[in-house]
Amino acid sequence: MSPPQTTQFLSGWGRYPTVETQVARPEARSSLRALVETGASSLLARGAGRSYGDASIAADGQTLLTDRLDRMLAFDPDTGVLRAEAGVRLREILAIFVPRGWFLPVTPGTKEVTLGGAVAFDVHGKNHHRDGGFSNFVREIELLTADGTTIRCGPDDQSELFWATVSGAGLTGIITEVELELRPIETAYVAERTIKARDLEEAFRLFDEHEADYPYAVAWLDGLASGACLGRSHLMLGRHARRAQLNDKQRRVPLAYTPDHWARLPFDLPEGLLNEWTISAFNQLYYARQRVRDSRSLSGIDSFFYPLDAISDWNRMYGERGFVQFQCVLPLEQSYDGLVDLLTQVQERGLASFLTVLKRLGPPDGGLLSFPMHGYTLSLDLPRRDGLMPLLDNLHETVVEYGGRVYLAKDAALRPDAFRAMYPRYPEWLEVKRRVDPENRFASAQAARLHIAP
After folding, report:
1. DSSP secondary structure letter of residue 444
2. 350 — alpha (psi -120 to 50), left (phi > 0) or beta?
3. Residue 92, phi-psi category: left (phi > 0), alpha (psi -120 to 50), beta (remainder)
4. Rg (CA), the chain
5. Are the CB atoms for 62 and 43 separated by under 8 Å?
6. DSSP state of 115
7. Contacts (Cβ under 8 Å, ≥6 apart) of 292
8. CB-based contact 429:369 (threshold 8 Å)
9. Architecture of domain 189-416 in CATH?
10. CB count, 10 Å around CB of 152?
11. What is the DSSP secondary structure assignment for residue 450, as one 8-state letter?
12. Cβ(379)–Cβ(395) below 8 Å
């Protein structure tokens, strides 16, 4: 029996753009298959809707909400391999397995994404320089294809389809099941070290100096600091704490895990509250709050990996118009000059980023449309204001000039020519798409904007 269908306006986490789409929410994989076999000519699966732009909304078709397909199916305590439906959220895995001594091998900056979404965009985390992306720890996936058949594939079985689906943004089929290798941990704490960098050059030097010693590394960056202070930042390094590093109270229950939750933002903040002046004041206070250059502490898992998740609906602080997250990566040799160029352009337009994050990534992953390359990735949260879209066009052109790319999970404004220049393996991916979905049934609003079709 097919689930009821309605028409809704959906958006990603950035709340822009908003797209009208037919929506259905299957309660079981059998009803999901029925929708694929008998449903609309254009379909797309949507998990938690935590991609930022229009990548998880069907274009002129039906968006299938798969968040209720969220059963955990099997776990092997000897190997740490978990098999679960794709609608399971990362926070549900953490709640069950951290107290048992297991952690995610790779995690993005939010635990609200689903397993299917993590595979579809081959998410990366603070440890990419050491461990690579999410797909490196996926043993197998189950994929529901356009003709209603189910295919199991992995790195060593049906590998072409696997590597096209990993990072394929849901356009090769619907991921229904994921087999993931978890990582053993001794405690639910992170041994954290924070070092202040005076400028971007020092931040790069600190990444170079410490990346071999710490599996996790990320920098908060003052996106409005200019001149001699351009790129001043806090570099946050971490590793999973050992039991011996805990105090007596913590050692009694070393794997105790209580997710952080400070507040819920119940309304949209006024338009323009986040502007160049308020953000500049916040950045100065945040940079100065750590008085010593080098500090060490023990942090909980949530405060180190998921600080923004402590505030529910934090995206509402950008107001009703929402925001666009711009995330790019530039090749290592081009990263310094390219980031100076990008940061300067944003400052000259007076469009301040409330949250600016810098990470160093390792070599490319196996996904044909995977985002990472060996270099530095910069993320900017830009409120929607007049002049934003022309700025994004210029930023995208700059990224192409420096040989980089933008992250499709965050994109809301990329043009087709820039996409093709950024993703040279797109023709390989398209050949696989043609074979498994020749009628282009799986299509998103983003894919339509980027002219992605067989």
Report:
1. B
2. left
3. alpha
4. 21
5. yes
6. H
7. none
8. yes
9. 2-Layer Sandwich (3.30)
10. 14
11. T
12. no
The candidate with the shortest Cα–Cα distance to 91, out of 67, 75, 127, is: 67
Backbone angles phi and psi of 287, in degrees to 5:
-65, -35
Q: What is the pLDDT of residues 85-103, one digit of tens each?
A: 999 999 999 999 999 999 9
Interval 421-449: pLDDT, tens: 999 999 999 999 999 999 999 999 999 99
Structure tokens at 79: 């190997």
* Residue 17: other Cβ atoms inside 10 A: 20
Same fold, 72-185 and 189-416: no
419 burial type by CB count under 10 A (0-12 exposed, 13-18 middle, 19+ buried): buried
Chain centre to alpha carbon of residue 85: 19
Left (φ > 0), alpha (ψ -120 to 50) or beta: where does 281 sit?
A: alpha
Q: Which residue has the tokens 């969220």?
A: 70
| Total residue count of the chain as it appears in this document | 454
Q: What is the pLDDT of residues 125-167, one digit of tens each?
A: 999 999 999 999 999 999 999 999 999 999 999 999 999 999 9
Using the structure block, give the residue that is written with the tokens 């999410």.
134
Tell me the DSSP string of 405-443: EE-TTT-SS--HHHHHHH-TTHHHHHHHHHHH-TT--B-
> What is the reported pLDDT for 162?
98
Query: What residues form DSSP beta bridges with 197?
Result: 233
CA pair distance 90, 257, nearest whole angstrom: 14
Type of residue found at 143:
L
Quote the pLDDT of residue 2.
Answer: 65
CA atoms of 72 and 86, how far apart (whole Å)? 9
pLDDT at 289: 83
CATH classification (class only), 72-185: alpha beta
Q: What is the DSSP pairing of strand 19-24 with strand 62-65?
A: parallel
Say if CB 380 and CB 346 are below 8 A apart.
yes
The domain locations on the chain are 72-185, 189-416
